[in-house]
């Protein structure tokens, strides 16, 4: 580790993107969204998916993104980092530092990151395509079985393909029940390969819309761009209840759908809620040694999260939302057949355990606690996903 330097004040954070030995930097506050980073250079850096969150925030908890099938998590792109520790010193850390393991998955616990140097990659394909499918709720089993069989393929989903879906209310498509909004996204084509789309078209969607574009369109296609409703400050509560699984259990999907549908009726305070199903390729994620980072769940293939959206109206409603979110997550967990729930830290509701955030292996828990004791014994950085 570099010699510490006493800081009178924390400098403005920045992100360095290094290409051919020539870094380009810009303050992080000026590049919070995916598209801004993508336009800094003619190359791509691995970022998250939603445009209205930062880049470094998700990265400290692992960070999923559209390019992870090729290059791994956002945290896997770190080359070096300047971080202000709990004792007020600014240090530069890299793979030679003992804390390096911890900041890639549990970084919220160890300091304030002021800058980071990350990998960038040549653009292999400038074109992307999406097939947007809308199904009625009676198709739950068929849709997610098709996803297992033709997209996920026992965890071998192609690096250039993403499957992504929501359950949500759309009265124009179905006035009575939530719809299944399902996207099949493919890199390097103008039309998604029929090998992927035809099994879903055969199910009988309400609509199917093919669209061509670029990487910069992905957030817009999936409703998480800066102008989308989820990115607006509307005074709403939006707790999530994430869980990783290996595949879609269609029986559990049906049970969860029925509970979700019953609680998001027109007169429900949770009418605008949605259930998220993120099916990235994990080839690049699994290529990184699981023991090499604090992010523990590289072998999981899918990330689910009910997002319970409502206008705040007292603690009783808050508890009702928490109960619903946890009930939905529990259905999925029971369908997974696992003893331990695996939770994506960046989506965490906050009532989960440290083993559910950081992995149940005792050596992981011991290593995190040891590093926490060394670098932040007073627990100054313990607001989000606290280790202890």
UniProtKB/TrEMBL annotation:
Cofactor(s) essential for the protein: FAD
MF terms (GO), sorted A to Z: flavin adenine dinucleotide binding; oxidoreductase activity
Region: Disordered, residue numbers: 1-28
Keywords: FAD, Flavoprotein, Oxidoreductase
Family per record: Belongs to the oxygen-dependent FAD-linked oxidoreductase family.
Protein known as: FAD-dependent oxygenase
